Amino acid sequence: MEKTKTNNFSLRSFLLRTMIDPVLWYTVLVMTALMFHYRDHEKVDNHGYILALGCGAATFVIGWLLFRIFDFMQKRHLLGFLLYSAVGVCFAYAFRTAINWGQEDYPITWGLWFLTPQDSVDYNFMFTMAFYILFTVFMCSVIYYFTRVRYRIFMNFLIFIIPFAIYGKEYEKMPTLFIILLAVGYILLMVYYRQLKDNEDTLFVSRRRSWKTIAVYAVLFASVAALFPKPAIEADRTTLETLINADILTDKLNNMLNVFRDTSDGQRFRGNIRTVNIYEASSADDLHLKMGTYSTYYFDNDSWKPDDIDLYYRQKTTDNNIAIGSPMGLADAFLEAASLDSEYAEKYGLTKYLKDGLDVPEQRTVSIYTVLGSSGLSNAYDMAPVPQNAVRMSACSKRGTIATLSGGTVSSVGSNFDNSERFRFEYSADTFFNSAKNREFVNNLAKYDYEQLLTDTEEVFESSKTDEELDSDDAYGYFRNDYLYYDKYCDLLLEYGDNKRIKELADQLTDGIDNDFEKARLLERYFYNNNYVYNLGYKKKKGENAEDFIFETKTGVCYEYATAMVLLARAAGIPARYCAGYNMNQRANGIINDNTNYIVTTKDAHGYPQLYIKGYGWMDFEPTITDANIRKGSKTATDMLSRAGLIILIGGLIVLLFVLVYPWLSHKIFIFMSGRRSPEAVIKAAMQRICRIYDIENVNTSSEAASIVRCTSGADISDAVEVFDRAFYGEEKLGESDRETAVRAYICAYSAYKETKKGRGITNRIT
Fold first, then answer.
1. In whole angstroms, what is the distance from residue 314 CA to residue 676 CA?
2. Over the stretch 81-133, which tens digit does the pLDDT of each residue have?
3. How far apart are CA 653 and CA 224, in angstroms?
4. Burial class (CB in 10 A: 0-12, 13-18, 19+), 292
């Protein structure tokens, strides 16, 4: 029904056909995904996207040229091979040049750089380009060969998993979009190039007729794959990474282990940190392990620094047995002072507590073993892992001087703790405020002038005990530390930068609450109930600080949560400080020490706030989402895949519904529009629709089309064929009766085909 076309070469047709080549576009997608991984991970701007898209565009051009060479090779084997060899030499030269340029002033070779996790080495742009050159040629060659030349589904699957293997080597989650596009692209490519053998059980259909089915299948496949629950896997790369012996690989890890440093920011808690076991422990409770306190926050660079109040040596000893705190915080000292002086007890309303005392939390023991030596590391450090509510370090394998600092930490003096140190601590169970009596005791003291309370307590102790008795009184020692530096607590530990927005929020959250403990709990719960997101992969923009986290981004890691709560507490009138250390909450049998039931790794590095509760003292809080909720709430690839899968599924269902409804809708629209179009346009459209429904190729004449329709469904469209021939071959002017003939013939053919389809199971879709 169309005029015969000539076979003359058309440049426009050639370019269009080659530029929409699915193999080429799949190759571009693979290389784009790979190059996004080899971005500069230290940058927080759009550098990674620019690099990936730029390399993707370059791959399109290079791939198109290489594919033309591959096409030529299939026709001219010898000349094609020589041409390919020449191109290979050019790429090898470019590859070697990039390596040489990248090697200048760089401490490791390209091969070691490639095998090493990228978060452990400095970014090298020329090494990245060398990787791109090598993999572009490789990917273009193998993807073309195993689709166009010799189809091998297993080899294509191996190619498909290469990007996932590269990301897995780095323990980095591939972006959700790449995962979905690669999976869908792989499925479509495999279906498109599937080679079927001709036999009596196989029916060949044109690809043009099957694309809709393939597309719907791909959408449903992506949706189901994304939505289907996946197991959470925690990979341990220790063995693999320790095979590579290079100092540069451990620099970042050593910085990670030295948690107590001059400055603390959030970088140590985010990104891809190498997983290495640090401690094994035997304990009855999950605990914070504190290794440093920080009292001064800088809004301009979003960092914490220690002050004298954090670093002052409170007590030194060489017998490795040293007091850290009191079983009930300051409550012990206040209650003891009340027992020593009745006037003091009466003045502060403590008389009623003297008879039965308070509910003392259970005293427990935790043994902590440093296991860095078993990881092949020689890192030494100067801070001990002090558990929360620590009362005493009762044993330590270190020989030499140790000291407690005013920030509640334990430091080595003169020489560091080594990588196989052993510690034993006594600590109080975190149950003090579970007791209504204890809460009442603390709340009662908060009603009085607190500075005067401290002064009076000091006077009672000094007038009632000798110096020797005071030196041996742990409750007094803990109280004395707080009393001597309370002025600094008030001045320094209430500093929040006079930030108006933080002050307004703190006042709003604590309005009507008259005690510090309840205020602290409200501030802690605020982050759980106001759509804050824990995201290890979130990279802060330059200049972002705690104010941005609280009011704008609401996305971060433990550092942001802890910093925000400290500043809000200070604005609410509660002294607070930032602490750095580790979370001890992974219950697992130790590998080195059989009697342990916890392990602590570099992944457990943690920041948290400590607030000074009047009447009790320093207390740990946890505004960061708990570990169980982190797994549920963090934006892991699985979570994002599920959300993306839901969106794709909804979109796929809409597309599927449209595909199913479109034939009926298109039929109705054609009937409706026939009355508004010219008879010539109607007869042409009617014949085209009939041919599409019956899958009649353009090479058939109109009379042949009528014959196919008659044989398929029994419908007679000869009247419409006669009108069509008169209009387009006889160039006659058609009338209203001809329009009606065309519409009638179309309806007859449409209805007959539907009936035939129901009776015989014809699979062609009516369109």
1. 96
2. 888 889 989 999 999 999 999 888 787 788 878 877 666 667 889 999 999 99
3. 12
4. buried
Helix (H, G, I), strand (E, B) or coil at 359: coil
**Partners of 435 in beta bridges:** none
- Picking from 734, 738, 704, 736, the residue whose alpha carbon sits closest to that of residue 720 is 738
Tokens coding 256: 């990670």
Query: Which residues have a Cβ under 8 Å from the Cβ of 574 and sit 6 or more positions away?
Result: 516, 519, 520, 611, 612, 613
What pLDDT is attached to residue 18? 82
Give the DSSP H or E segment for 436. Answer: helix 436-445
Helix axes 637-674, 736-760, angle to 10 degrees: 140
- Which residues have CB under 8 Å from 45's CB, separation 6+? 541
Buried residues in 133-152 as b, exposed as e (16+ CB within 10 A): bbbbbebbbbbbebbeeeee
Locate 511 and state its tokens: 């309005």
Low-confidence ranges of the chain (pLDDT < 70): 1-9, 41-46, 117-121, 169-172, 191-265, 270-274, 373-380, 484-488, 626-653, 655-660, 699, 757-767
Residue 109 φ then ψ, to 5° = -80, 170
CA dihedral 531, 535, 537, 539 (to 10 degrees): 50
- Find the helix or strand (DSSP H, E) in which 297 lies: strand 296-298
Burial 589-607 (b: 16+ CB within 10 A, else e): ebeebeebebbbbbbbbbb
CA 265, distance to chain mean position in Å, is 19
Tens digits of per-residue pLDDT, 3-30?
444 455 677 777 777 888 888 998 999 9
Rounded to 5 degrees, what angle do the CA atoms 521, 527, 531 make?
150
Rg of the chain over Cα atoms, rounded to whole angstroms, equals: 37
Q: What is the pLDDT of residue 644?
A: 54
Q: Which residues contact 75 (CB under 8 A, 6 or more apart)?
A: none
What long-range pairs does 658-661 form, CB within 8 A, spacing at least 24?
659/212, 659/216, 659/765
The pair of structure tokens assigned to 369 is: 């073993």
The DSSP element (H or E) to which 477 belongs, if any, is helix 474-484
Cβ of 62: how many Cβ atoms within 10 Å? Answer: 21
Q: What is the pTM of this model?
A: 0.57
Contact 182, 30 (CB under 8 A): yes
Residue 324 CB neighbours (<10 A): 25
The beta strands (E) that lie in 376-451 are given as 386-387, 390-396, 401-405, 410-413, 422-428
Residue 629: which of 537, 562, 558, 579 has the closest Cα? Answer: 558
Pull the structure tokens for residue 234: 């925690």
Which amino acid makes up residue 532?
Answer: Y
Alpha helix segments (H runs only) across 675-735: 679-693, 702-713, 718-728
CA 148 from centroid of its chain's CA atoms:
37
DSSP 493: T
* Contacts with 589 (C-beta within 8 Å, 6 or more apart), sequence order: 596, 597
- Residue 668, Cβ neighbours under 10 Å: how many? 10
Q: Are 304 and 263 in contact (CB under 8 A)?
A: yes
d(CA 375, CA 599): 13
- Pick from 454, 447, 443: nearest CA to 489: 454
CA distance 623 to 615: 22
Q: How many CB atoms lie within 10 A of CB 296?
A: 16
Half-sphere exposure of 612 (CA within 13 A, CB side): 24
Structure tokens at 417: 């703790």
Other C-beta atoms closer than 10 Å to the C-beta of 203 total 8
- For the stretch 450-473, pLDDT in tens is 889 999 999 999 898 888 888 888
Q: What is residue 503's predicted lDDT score, i.e. its pLDDT?
A: 95
Residues shown for the chain: 767
Dihedral sign for Cα atoms in the order 132, 138, 143, 148:
positive
Residue 387 tokens read as 């558990």
